[in-house]
Amino acid sequence: MRAGDRLPPLRIPVTRTLIVAGALASRDFQDVHHDPELARRKGAPDIFMNILTTNGLVGRYVTDHFGPAAVLRKVAIRLGAPNHPGDTMLLTGTVEEVAGDTAVVRVVGANGLGTHVTGTVTVTLPEAGA
Amino acid sequence: MREEQVGDELGARLKEYEGCPAAVAGTGKDPVNAPMIRHWCEALGDTNPAYTGPDAIAPPTMLQTWTMGGLSGHRGRTGAYQELLGLLDAAGCTAVVATDCEQEYLRPLRPGDEVTFDTVIEEVSGRRTTRLGTGYFVTTRTDVRVAGEPVATHRFRILKYAPVPRAPLPRRPRPVVNRDNAGFWRGVAEHRLLIQRCTACGTPRHPWLPGCNACGSPDWDTVEASGEGTVHSYVVLHHPPFPAFDPPYAVGLIELAEGVRMVSNVVGVPYDEVRIGLPVRLEFQRCDEELTVPVFRAVRR
After folding, report:
1. Which residue of chain A is at minimal alpha-carbon distance from B162?
2. Would you state the CATH architecture of domain B187-298?
3. Where are the alpha helices (DSSP H) in B122-275?
4. Which residue of chain B has the CA closest to A67?
5. Hey, where are the domains in chain A?
6. Which family does the similarity line name (chain A) (predicted)?
7. For the segment B116-157, what is each residue's pLDDT rounded down to a tens digit?
8. For B20-63, what is each residue's pLDDT tens digit?
9. Looking at beta carbons, which residues of chain A come within 8 Å of B36?
10. Does A99 touch chain B (CB under 8 A)?
11. Does any CB of chain A come closer than 8 Å to the CB of residue B65?
């Protein structure tokens, strides 16, 4: 693991099921995450993914790559273009810094509207430092 | 987004809530538990074995789930926070969207852990106009504990705004793809920036051309750009606005580490902070279902 290493991209089909299941699994009952009509009244064209689901997908992307021994230390994300049903999000990641057994990975999730999420994930790999 | 502080009386009132607690001694509605972890993993397609079995931990990114109020409402929310939200609702800022989430995990949560939390209103922005509408950003910080021991911190930013319907931006113009440059765009679709290289004299070139400017040879192969570069020169476009673009924005002439230059957007830095020599790194921006373009993000030093 070295700074500059790129993680293989992960393609996430943004289905209506994923948006609704993610919202309910995170106990987020805001109407914009499950009710298209109410979402439209709030200026959105359709329901959109909640931030907790995005946060979970960013974490999953990093632990999928580094394996079950990887320990997430920090996840910091900022949302941009929303994830609406029918879109696809492509997660890409680059190792930005490595200090001992800990790496900072920059993650970007792009969808059909632009950049859905940018963030950094700090992850410790117990075996890498041993 | 831009500050519009003139005449922002509401903003001044909202500022007074900075530092006030938003939740005191809040308690999670459920202890950390395997069924909710399983539902989360199923919803997100997360098959990490660390989240199952007798030694299971909860997915760290699930943190906020344990403090959510759900349909039955929040426990431990303060009058100050309700007032703040009420002032915003009364001003027409009835819609909410979350914009930032920063979590630090001190130790994993495990089934059986009973979560308590305290939240403070860290910051309330002045009035801001965004593409969604005009409103205010509210940032809270939550300290999460189990049996009195800190286990995680969680900073969360929402925009509470007055919704306005808006027309979508037109699509970005399509690149002209021809026999000479099709390979370049195939590379971009795979998130690889390919530079042509003359196989006769080794000179790299960009944009793609049928022959070598140095020796005239028609033979070439490609090298993948490392993605490192610097701003060789730039312009800032203010006017006229062009459909699908949102001025002002910086257009840079990027010098790649491999020695060729290309024109691209400089992102991740305010347009007026772009400078000659600024280190940048390649990133791929998906404009819509059919178009991805290479852009360059400023590297913080």
Report:
1. A42
2. Beta Barrel (2.40)
3. 182-189
4. B48
5. 6-129
6. Belongs to the enoyl-CoA hydratase/isomerase family.
7. 999 999 999 999 988 778 999 999 999 999 999 999 999 999
8. 999 999 999 999 999 999 999 999 999 999 999 999 999 999 99
9. 25
10. no
11. yes
**Of B39, B60, B155, B42, the residue nearest A59 (C-alpha):** B60
Domain with CATH 2.40.50 in chain B: 187-298
Longest dimension (CA), chain A: 55
Mutate to test the interface with B, among A12, A42, A71 (most CBs of B within 10 A): A42
Residue B13 has phi, psi (to 5 degrees) of -65, -40
pLDDT in tens, A49-74: 999 999 999 999 999 999 999 999 99
- Reported ipTM exceeds the 0.90 cut: yes
> B9-163, what's its fold?
Thiol Ester Dehydrase; Chain A (3.10.129)
Q: Cβ–Cβ of A42/B163 closer than 8 Å?
A: yes
The third-level CATH classification (topology) of the domain covering A6-129 is: Thiol Ester Dehydrase; Chain A (3.10.129)
B170 to chain A: closest CA residue: A113
Q: Any CB–CB contact under 8 A between B49 and chain A?
A: yes
In this structure, chain B runs to a length of 301
Q: How far apart are the first and last CA of chain A?
A: 14
Q: Could you identify the residue written with the tokens 């909860």?
A: B58
Token pair, residue A89, equals: 């999000």
Cα–Cα distance for residue pair A38/B106, rounded to 1 Å: 38
Best A34, A51, A87 residue to mutate vs chain B (most B CBs within 10 Å): A51
CATH 3.10.129.10 domain residues, chain B: 9-163
